[in-house]
Design goal:
447 residues; 14 helices; 30% helix
């Protein structure tokens, strides 16, 4: 679970800015609090703000940190997208930090980057009345936790890391994950959570080939998807997975790339490769190895014609709203079943306000969910205290210097009977567009 994220001097964030999922004092919707290792964490958050306020920048900043930690490289944006509206910040480092819980522990990671070099890096275990350093790194040296440093057999390993393996641009967190030493098991655990359980969805994210594979082979998954699509009157009455051999599907395009995919599937038979269908990014096919047969799987959605007969539709033939629902369904399934965190930018895109409200309401009211949902939105119909606690609603707003600040609705100490939607639309909480004297604009002057 994500507990907090801190960003400084990246995109529209100038000063140190914190976003967190720590509950406030409100007693409403008590089932929205998960207890993780003695720390209470909220199950959902909606982030509001005007266009250009920095909502998406928060998602992108979290994405930068995930790339740095799990891909072992400094994202291009961390070198080129510092806060640009101040001369001071251009010569200052970018700083990112994250606190999260996984398995039976809570961890904190922070990093400072300047001109492609990691100046400082820290990883430690946190908790109630607890703060234990696992490693700290500066430009010149590394220090590990006390037990590691005291063990003489670790001296040689530390020297190899410092003198041969670690580079100025390489995150130590990433490097240590590749060293399969028992001393670094906490890093392995934390890496796995960041890599697989912290999932970011942008406005162009599409369901991948694993979604098609799950519909075909995972017990209960196909009925889950079908029932959800039917409940929103998409017209879909059934799902079908069409299966074709590699040779038949690729035909004349059967090339070295396809052979490479076959080799990968042979080496890891349980894996699933995902490719855009005929170059269309909105449609994904699944490539699998089943009993030494290489198969392409493609999702078809069935509708009834006027005579009640089933008609196959490709994903691209569905409405934008149905395609967006298909993108969300894997997230919804995981949020119900697993301890994971989804961060979604512009969740309401292409969805009717009633659909998005029903989806969020169902997640909000379900007392048996396992996951955590964070999303940016403009959809004011969600501003309902029957759906959200006040500490689960956040706002992004730029100050006079063009820097994004983040704050929670709980800062306003509103009563549970207050119509927060009306208050937001009338500017009570800020974070809405300032249109100036738009009615006085003479847009014919340039004719």
């Amino acid at each position: 679970m994500l507990i907090r994220f801190i960003v400084k001097n990246l995109y529209s964030f100038k000063d140190q800015t914190e976003f967190n999922l720590l509950p406030g004092r409100t007693k409403r919707l008590e089932h929205h609090k998960y207890n993780k290792n003695g720390i209470e964490v909220l199950k959902q958050t909606a982030i509001y703000g005007a266009n250009g306020s920095g909502k998406s920048n928060l998602v992108k900043a979290i994405g930068c940190l995930k790339v740095l930690m799990t891909a072992g490289r400094i994202p291009y944006a961390m070198n080129t997208q510092k806060f640009k509206l101040s001369e001071y910040t251009l010569s200052e480092p970018v700083e990112l930090a994250i606190e999260f819980s996984c398995n039976a522990s809570t961890y904190f990671y922070s990093v400072s980057v300047q001109n492609g070099t990691i100046l400082e890096e820290y990883f430690g275990e946190t908790g109630v009345n607890m703060d234990r350093m696992i490693f700290t790194r500066s430009v010149k040296n590394i220090q590990f936790f006390e037990e590691f440093e005291k063990n003489e057999k670790n001296t040689a390993l530390k020297n190899v890391i410092e003198q041969s393996l670690l580079k100025p641009h390489l995150p130590l967190f990433f490097l240590l994950n590749d060293i399969r030493e028992e001393a670094f098991k906490e890093i392995h655990s934390a890496f796995a959570w960041i890599a697989t359980k912290l999932i970011l969805m942008g406005t162009e994210t599409n369901a991948n080939g694993m979604f098609v594979q799950n519909i075909d082979v995972l017990d209960g998954y196909k009925p889950f998807v079908k029932d959800l699509l039917k409940s929103f009157n998409t017209g879909v009455v059934e799902l079908k997975v069409d299966k074709t051999s590699f040779e038949e599907y690729f035909g004349e395009n059967y090339n070295e790339e396809v052979e490479k995919i076959k080799d990968e599937l042979i080496s890891t038979p349980t894996s699933v490769k995902s490719l855009p269908r005929n170059g269309r990014s909105s449609e994904k096919i699944a490539l699998v190895n089943e009993n030494s047969k290489f198969i392409v799987k493609e999702l078809l959605l069935l509708h009834n014609d006027e005579n009640g007969n089933n008609v196959d539709f490709l994903v691209r033939e569905e409405s934008d709203g149905t395609k967006r629902l298909l993108d969300f369904i894997p997230a919804i399934h995981q949020l119900i079943k697993f301890d994971c965190t989804f961060i979604i930018d512009e969740m309401e895109r292409s969805l009717h306000p009633t659909i998005i409200k029903e989806l969020i309401s169902k997640f909000s009211n379900d007392e048996n969910t396992k996951g955590q949902l964070i999303f940016t939105t403009h959809e004011s119909n969600l501003l309902d205290q029957e759906i959200f606690r006040t500490d689960e609603i956040w706002f992004a707003e730029k100050n006079l210097n063009g820097a994004t600040k983040l704050y929670s609705l709980s800062d306003f100490k509103e009563h549970s009977t207050i119509d927060i939607r009306k208050g937001y639309l009338t500017g009570r909480y800020g974070a809405i567009p300032f249109l100036g004297n738009l009615h006085e604009l003479n847009w014919h002057n340039n004719d």
